[in-house]
Amino acid sequence: MSAAAPRYTYLGPEGTFTETALLQVPGAEEAVRIPAGNARIALEKVRHGEADAAMIPIENSVEGGVPATLDAIANGGELRIIREVLVPVTFQLVARKGTRLEDITVVSTHGHAWAQTREWFDANHPGVDYLTASSTAAAAVALLEDGAAHQAAVCAPIVSRTHPELEVLADNIGDNPDAVTRFILVSRPGPMPRPTGADKTTLVIPLPEDHPGALMEILDQFASRGVNLSRIESRPTGQYLGHYFFSIDADGHAHDARMQQALAGLHRISPATRFLGSYARADAQPPVVAPHNSDAAFAAAEHWVAGILRDGAAG
Amino acid sequence: MSAAAPRYTYLGPEGTFTETALLQVPGAEEAVRIPAGNARIALEKVRHGEADAAMIPIENSVEGGVPATLDAIANGGELRIIREVLVPVTFQLVARKGTRLEDITVVSTHGHAWAQTREWFDANHPGVDYLTASSTAAAAVALLEDGAAHQAAVCAPIVSRTHPELEVLADNIGDNPDAVTRFILVSRPGPMPRPTGADKTTLVIPLPEDHPGALMEILDQFASRGVNLSRIESRPTGQYLGHYFFSIDADGHAHDARMQQALAGLHRISPATRFLGSYARADAQPPVVAPHNSDAAFAAAEHWVAGILRDGAAG
Amino acid sequence: MSAAAPRYTYLGPEGTFTETALLQVPGAEEAVRIPAGNARIALEKVRHGEADAAMIPIENSVEGGVPATLDAIANGGELRIIREVLVPVTFQLVARKGTRLEDITVVSTHGHAWAQTREWFDANHPGVDYLTASSTAAAAVALLEDGAAHQAAVCAPIVSRTHPELEVLADNIGDNPDAVTRFILVSRPGPMPRPTGADKTTLVIPLPEDHPGALMEILDQFASRGVNLSRIESRPTGQYLGHYFFSIDADGHAHDARMQQALAGLHRISPATRFLGSYARADAQPPVVAPHNSDAAFAAAEHWVAGILRDGAAG
Amino acid sequence: MSAAAPRYTYLGPEGTFTETALLQVPGAEEAVRIPAGNARIALEKVRHGEADAAMIPIENSVEGGVPATLDAIANGGELRIIREVLVPVTFQLVARKGTRLEDITVVSTHGHAWAQTREWFDANHPGVDYLTASSTAAAAVALLEDGAAHQAAVCAPIVSRTHPELEVLADNIGDNPDAVTRFILVSRPGPMPRPTGADKTTLVIPLPEDHPGALMEILDQFASRGVNLSRIESRPTGQYLGHYFFSIDADGHAHDARMQQALAGLHRISPATRFLGSYARADAQPPVVAPHNSDAAFAAAEHWVAGILRDGAAG
């Protein structure tokens, strides 16, 4: 990243959970923050140097992987994930000041937010009509315009904090109180975050052939070195039915010997495997590594083999 | 299904690719056809007896698995897939009669259709504005109403066939000419389609624990009996990050011995495994089965073990 | 076995460790005991009905598997192991009464016994000459004949107990004080010993093809059902280099569901697999069985699959 | 090996199949050849510098692995196999000149040879008595001494060639006409034979723990890199029942990348793994190596990982 104030882009508009995630990055509050219309656009800004890094959602505990992110980062110029951020997904019902719940006939929000608050509305305000919006924040901000077709919006808490002219009619209206979304901060290839001992490595691995053995061979590259997977998502390559790539998060850092060996094995089996970065886990939980999978064990094994080859240099 | 004319529901409205898929089912043309607002609603109609079967999309060669379908069939009352239908995804640009391409400033369609025709618009009519619609058919039919904000729609060919008042401005405008969507016909549990020799079995398998070994154990249940997988999709259970179920299509029928053994193994490892049905493959391609995985081999093995137990009945 | 007093054969002559093993079988003391020249002869006596059962050594903690036994039981008419017996291998140095250690210039015993007492002789009577004998007992008994070329013999303690005219010059002269030999009691196929909860199953499994995958597939039949192996020995089939069969002891009884499934899987992969019996472990140590490999888990899985097939009987 | 005429030791005495094997080594005919009483003694001569190399049998197509060799090379100072030799096992029946078959009442030979010619005697000279000898050659040579208790011997063809005073009564009397014994030439660690493209690597791998998973992990080190095994023998370590090491021949040379990776993996899992050498296969058959297991694939994978680490050197 440049020495000057960094420029961040993020999945906008302002007031989304993604901006909340970005503001958790040290220095982001003072930085230039450029909203982008979708994940692909945000990553293109990074690729073209218009931004130093992009914050985009990759995974939601309720909805699953975010296809647009998974696809946008798997294709195009190489990028690196340098940080992950977890944001609890809590929804508020907001309206113009003075609005009462019984006045609301139409509520607007993004489809995902609507899906995650249906039970609250069924229990507390059944029969309300729903108007789709491009984002939760857009639905809320539109309330301030004259002639809005809706009287309330479902959005992230950040909106009411930054728009005091909106009133919170109900807080924590999500159906799943433990819902959390995971965001990644993505930059161009460059210096990798140092290993912290509790790291994650993200990979894109095309399934080389259409047989179950191929996926098992891929998984075995991790399992045989004791590398645990914390996320595995399948995505179609778009070429034909049954042609997939896998988006995988593995516990450990590219500087760990067991991860390097797993990476090399993956490259042999699926040469188009993409390395998307090693970075600190948001939860700072270190993995359990068996002694025979430690850096020391790999170094000892390499030393032993080198000794065999040196002593037995072909005569 | 009832002896009377069957009642089908499908992901509506009329004129979608899903209706095209439904019309490929023998007798569907004369049957009652009830459009449903989403996959969950369609399946609920089947569960409650309001329809005999539902046609819904499960997988698209470009977009991947359809999350709403995967989730709706994985939860709730048990259902059975009894047929699969493949429909090529071809898009038309339609407008009211007399409209010329250069007159179009706003085009409307479903988000997926827009994503799959972007290249055509960039090349043939750059700069056009896009208005989201709830379905491709809805966007097209809305053109016939006065005061529509858009002048053209992207939709399936079925719409212009049933609405002669619409004009086709351009055909086959999809970016990927080989795009295909796979649909499934879903009914309540009942008699299974007979094995044809080229069958598919669909399963929902919750990952029992958060470790890579569990997924490998699951895959091994298939691999160790020579059962090939043609689709594997991960989906979050919605409980917490990293908690998945897998939606899997496996080659073969529940009446095949190797599939029965794989099913039993899956039930042991992941007791909440769900059987979603065995049915004929749309492409009628039979699997290659090694002699030691044939029904005959399983029968011989069972006979051998039975002989050991019988001859050696505990004294 | 016949209702009359059973007739046992064993690897003779009298006074060997094998007779010691046989005498641990309840009732053997009063039974007819027929020494046999080698394991093959002993088993042939059983096959032909000349004996009800044969006691032969199968494994020694120092020397390994006994090839003659492994080969003799793997070929020819089917037989069943019905019991195992462990005998500590302790050696005595015996001589005619009045002989002193310093009088001994030549010692005789079986080659194995000589190999296991070399350290004692090196330390206590270096330079003594060694004369090969066909068995430890034969070497000892020959001392009582006139004109014997040797003055001492190495043999099992049973010999001095039954031949008071021999004197024990030294006891426990084996180099490995924990040495133990495992013996098996073999009968014709018939009622199997009841499961005790701590059982062993012995198998002969020809390696179907010359590739490492075949052995892994065989081992996976056990591992995928959580069946532990306590012994694995490779033996050539005698046909050509690199053609093997494996002699395996697995924890569990043929009446255990996990063992039945493993047996069936082995039969598919290697149809010439031979079942040599299930019987109580001499050490009475029960195996640790994970819940998903229990009889209950297998029964539940079978019940589940049966339900799928019954409810969905092809229409 | 020293520049002077090499000194070879071998499992003697003169006239055994082992000497036949040694004479196939270029230059052995002119070299010093020192018979040794057993494999352990032969290897000790090499370890102590009394011989430059030892020829000993390792495997017989009928009898299997030679335990004495497997154990003697697995323990003690490190040694290297530098060559393998295959010798067909053909037996002759020899006697003093003038002896007729019907004159023979006692025949002598080594136990293994007797076992492999039983069918011939049963068919051609039933009822003959058998006298054990320490080697086939010793039995034959003893015929030339006065007062021999036997009138004929079973031995290798080399004996009658070097002792014209013996007459061959019958040739090729072995029960298995394809029987072959494999011998190895063993030296102190030093320059390794160059890779020929058709090589073999011999290893001693202690089973790290008593569970089936350990053996599968070991086999997976080979299988996951496409390394085929041509021999696998289990041997007890002698410590307690169920404690094994495996003696393994794998296709390929330590200079092959896939073998180096397999060796490193074995060292991690079983740090006491012993490398016994890489050398040309006697049959010169090259292995089939899949593209993703080739040296080029390993080099490309390593290059890719190095690039990731270099470009992303921790900032």
From TrEMBL, chains A, B, C, D:
CDD domains noted in UniProt: ACT_CM-PDT, PBP2_Aa-PDT_like
EC top class, in one word? lyase
Q: Name one GO molecular function term.
A: prephenate dehydratase activity
**Is Amino-acid biosynthesis one of the keywords UniProt gives this record?**
yes
What pathway does the UniProt record associate with this protein? Amino-acid biosynthesis; L-phenylalanine biosynthesis; phenylpyruvate from prephenate: step 1/1
Name of protein:
Prephenate dehydratase
The protein's organism comes out as Arthrobacter horti
Where do the Prephenate dehydratase domain residues begin and end?
A: 7-188
List the InterPro entries hit by this protein, alphabetically. Answer: ACT-like_dom_sf, ACT_dom, Chor_mutase/pphenate_deHydtase, Preph_deHydtase, Preph_deHydtase_CS
| Catalyzed reaction equations | prephenate + H(+) = 3-phenylpyruvate + CO2 + H2O
What are the record keywords, sorted?
Amino-acid biosynthesis, Aromatic amino acid biosynthesis, Lyase, Phenylalanine biosynthesis
Q: Which NCBIfam families match?
A: PRK11898.1
Q: Which Gene3D superfamilies match?
A: 3.30.70.260, 6.10.250.500, Periplasmic binding protein-like II (3.40.190.10)
Enzyme Commission code(s) on record = 4.2.1.51
